[in-house]
């Protein structure tokens, strides 16, 4: 079970819906403390893993794919700050996109 929502209602339900000896991976970032049933973790022998966005296994998989020649360049489009609206429009219009991230970058990232 992956908790990507980081919503207090979800936290309260996680241990109730996972099978005995199941796993809960907390991916979402909670802004405030949330109720979590520790007794359920013990009695159901659950494994709870916290992760900051990606796991070590994710990175190993990515490195393996890149080392075998996976064309990762096709997955990434870099926009300048002036093109930020284009990224928002792509998301809003159901474009072929998984995630749009914005940030201040250094070097000449925006030059093609």
From TrEMBL:
InterPro entries xrefs: NAD(P)-bd_dom_sf (IPR036291)
This protein's name: L-threonine 3-dehydrogenase
Organism in which the protein naturally occurs: Budvicia aquatica
């Amino acid at each position: 079970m992956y908790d990507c929502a980081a919503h207090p209602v979800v936290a309260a339900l996680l241990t109730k819906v996972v099978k005995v000896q199941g796993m809960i991976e907390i991916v979402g970032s909670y802004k405030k403390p949330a109720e979590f049933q520790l007794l359920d973790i013990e009695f159901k022998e659950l494994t709870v893993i916290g992760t900051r966005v990606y796991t070590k296994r994710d990175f190993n998989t990515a490195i393996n794919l890149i080392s075998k020649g996976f064309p990762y360049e096709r997955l990434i489009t870099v926009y300048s700050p002036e093109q930020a609206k284009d990224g928002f429009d792509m998301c809003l219009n159901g474009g072929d996109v998984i995630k749009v991230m914005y940030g201040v970058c250094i070097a000449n990232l925006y030059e093609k």
